C-alpha cells in the first residue's frame, strides 16, 4: 500500500500551461486522473449507412466528399456534401478553420459523427465531429468518453493522460471484501475501468445512468471518504484538552426561580446533553438546533452558569450588533441580579469603553462577555475562557470560529454553536457529521400558530387596514422592506419612503424605522422603544432577520417576499408568534413571479416547521448555498447526491467507524485515494 500511496499522490507532471488547466479541473496529483470521470459518451463503434441512420441520436456515417464550398448567404458557412452507396448527406459548419476546409476537400473520405436533422436542403448534420479515414480503418471497439474539461485542453489529450494513469495506478480495492459483498458493490478497478473505457455491451444511456453499479460504487466510495474524514476530525478534537466545567447549580437554581416560565422538556433534555459534555476534559463541539422561537437563549444562559459556577468565563457571540445587543440586554437582565458581571464588547464601542471592557475580560472580573466578532480580535484576552457560545453559527466563517478556539489558552474552550437554520437530515449526516447535535424539538407552550397569507401587492390598502386593526387590539407590527441586493442606497431609500408613507397612512400610530445604516446606539434605541411598546409599527430592512424578540408583536408584513430566500422568510416570520396572541405573517408579492419564487412562496405558505422548510430549500437550491461558510474547505461531493443517494450515505456512515476500528490500513488507503492532502479540512 505504501507504493500505491506514493504513485497516487505524486503531483501531476505536465507543461505549466497544461498543469494550470488540469488544476482548474481539480487534477493535482496523479490519482486524480483516475477519479476524473466522463460526463457522457459518444458512440463511434457502429457505422450507419446514410439511408438507415436514425434521427434523434448521434450517429456515425462514412462517405466521400462530393461537394465542398464556402457560402456567404445568409452568413458565411462551409457546406459539404458526402455520399455513400445509399445516399447523400449535408454537413454544415458555421465556424470552421482552413484546416477543416482542407480535411473536407472534394474526394476525401471521412467519417462524421453527429445528430442528423431535417434541413431546408435535405438531411444534414450541423458541426459534426469529422475524422478522416484510411481505407479499412477499424471502428472504435468501445464508446468514446467525453470528459469535463476547460478551454485549451482537448478531449484527446485528456483521454491520453487518463489512459496512461489507468495503466500504472494501483486500483486495488480499499473496501473490506466481506463488506463489499454485503453491500453488493462492484470492484473499484472494474468500476473505473468500465467508466473510462466501456465495453461494447453498454450503451451511452446505460453508462450515464446513476443506478449503474459502477457509479454506485464511486458514489459509495466518495461518501465513505467523507464519513471517514469526519470521524477522524471528530476523534482529533476529542483528543484536545479542555477545562471540565461542573458547577454547584446554585446560580442556576436562582435563575430558574426568577424566570416567569419553566424550561420545556426539550430544553431540559438538551441542557443535560450539554452538561454531560461540559463535565469532560476534552472540548465540546456541539450544535444546538432549535427552530426560531424555540428558546435557545435560556439554554445558553444556563450552560454559561455552569462554566461561571466552575470559576471560568464565557463568551457569547452573535453575528450582528442588533442581535448581540439583544442578547446582552437579556442576559444581563437574567444574570446581573445573581451578581454575575456581564460585559458588552462590539466594534462600535468608543475606545475608552472598549479598553475598559477588555480590561474586565482580561482580569477575569467579567464572567460573561457578549458581543459581535469583536470578541475574536487578537487583543481580546480572557483570564480563563471555559465556554464559547456562538449564536447563528452558520453566519460565521470557519476562520472566525478557529480564532475563538485559541482564546482558551492552553486548554481549549468548549464550544456551543446555536442555529435556527435547521440542517436537513442528509446534510447533518454528511457535512456536519463531525459535530454532536442537540435539537430543541418543541416550542414553549402557549404559542398559537402563525397564519401566513400571500397577498398581491396591489392589495396593499387592505394590509394597511389590517395593521390598524391589529394595533387597535393592543398588538404591534413589523413591516419589512424589500431586499435590494444591487443597491444598499436604494434599499435604504425604500425603507425611508415606506416609513414616510405608512406614517401618513396611519397617523394615529407611532411608527419607527430601523435599518443597517443607523449607528448601533440608534438602532438599539429604536428596538428598545419598540420593545416597550412606545412604537406600535416598526418599519425595518432585513436587519431584524435574526433573533429579535418582542412577544407583543403579532403581525409581520414582508414586502417583495418573492425576492427573499426561504431561510430568510422563515426567520423573519419567526419574529411573530412569540406570545399568546394569534399572529399573522403577510407576504406581499409582485407579479409576475419566477418559477423559483413561486416554489418558495408555496413552501413557506404550506409549512411552518423549519426542518421541512430547510429540506425543501435544499431541494430547490441544492446543498451549495446551504453549506455557506462550511463550504469553504469542504470538498463538495462530485458523484454522490445527498437526496438520491440517501441509502448509500447511510451505509457509508455505518461503515466508517467500523472500518477505522477493524481495518485502519484500508481506511487510510481509502482516504488517501479520495482526499489526499485534504483530509484535515475540518480542524475548526
Ligand atoms: P430562539 O431559539 O429563537 O433564540 P429565544 O431564546 O429568543 O428563541 O426565545 C423565544 C421566546 O421564548 C423568548 O421570549 C423567551 O423568553 C421565551 N421562552 C424561552 N423558553 C421558554 C419556556 N420554556 N416557556 C415559555 N417561554 C419561553
Ligand atoms: Mg435566538
From TrEMBL:
What is this enzyme's catalytic activity, as reactions? Answer: ATP + H2O = ADP + phosphate + H(+); Couples ATP hydrolysis with the unwinding of duplex DNA by translocating in the 3'-5' direction
**Residue stretches making up the Helicase C-terminal domain:** 473-619
The regions listed as transmembrane in this protein's record are none
Parts forming coiled coils: none
Question: One MF term in GO for this entry?
Answer: ATP binding
Q: Domain named Helicase ATP-binding: which ranges?
A: 277-440
Under the heading SUPFAM superfamilies, the entry gives: Nucleic acid-binding proteins, P-loop containing nucleoside triphosphate hydrolases
Family matches, as InterPro entries: ATP-dep_DNA_helicase_RecG (IPR004609), DEAD/DEAH_box_helicase_dom (IPR011545), Helicase_ATP-bd (IPR014001), Helicase_C-like (IPR001650), NA-bd_OB-fold (IPR012340), P-loop_NTPase (IPR027417), RecG/Mfd (IPR047112), RecG_dom3_C (IPR045562)
Q: Which GO biological-process labels does this protein carry?
A: DNA recombination; DNA repair
The organism named in the record is Crenobacter luteus
Q: Which UniProt keywords apply?
A: ATP-binding, DNA damage, DNA recombination, DNA repair, DNA-binding, Helicase, Hydrolase, Isomerase, Nucleotide-binding
Functional summary from the UniProt entry: Plays a critical role in recombination and DNA repair. Helps process Holliday junction intermediates to mature products by catalyzing branch migration. Has replication fork regression activity, unwinds stalled or blocked replication forks to make a HJ that can be resolved. Has a DNA unwinding activity characteristic of a DNA helicase with 3'-5' polarity.
EC numbers for this chain: 5.6.2.4
* Similarity comment text for this entry: Belongs to the helicase family. RecG subfamily.
Q: What is this protein called?
A: ATP-dependent DNA helicase RecG
Short name of one Pfam family: Helicase_C
- EC class name: isomerase
